[in-house]
Here is the input.
Amino acid sequence: MPLDRHLAALATAVAIGATSLVVVLGLQNRSLETRYGEARRLATELYPGYGVPEFATATLEGDSVVLGAAPESVRQLLLVFDTECDYCRATVPAWKQVLSVLDSASYRPIQVLGISLDSDSATRVYLEDLEFALPTVTMRDPKTLQLYRLRSVPQTILLGPRGYVMFARTGQLSTPEAVDTLLQVIKRVAGDVSSTETAIRSH
Here is the structure.
């Protein structure tokens, strides 16, 4: 009997130890998954502080622009879309609302540019259909898309001096709260500077 009791106690201790080990390993695995997910996000998505390279191109109207190289006092707001994306189409009204506010605000100049991941012809039709008057460039080169981390659309990106990301949001922008958040960020990083300075939409 004493031996049986000792064996039973030992079995219980082993079972408790095994359970504890499983819990610890599970927590460690969860922690590793969280770290991996965060590392993957930082490696594939834009985030505040990330610097995009300069990209010289031209708008659909033929005007020269350089993404990521606005003058020191200018911020660049990039609106990234694809003509086949339903979420992008649903975001356009919110983008229009943001631009309307910027046009009447006394922030540092904001250079607003659309970035289409589609062809010039499809983009022109898209903008005309939505009555969205926006200086727009097309970006289809895989290397450039990778450097700008434009894997998903729609994206709303605010660039500061030397192409550093100040704000980046991926996904549909449609709720009043989301629009207000973006405007608050713009107000904070662009700042009120005078009653005469307004948003600009061209180089």
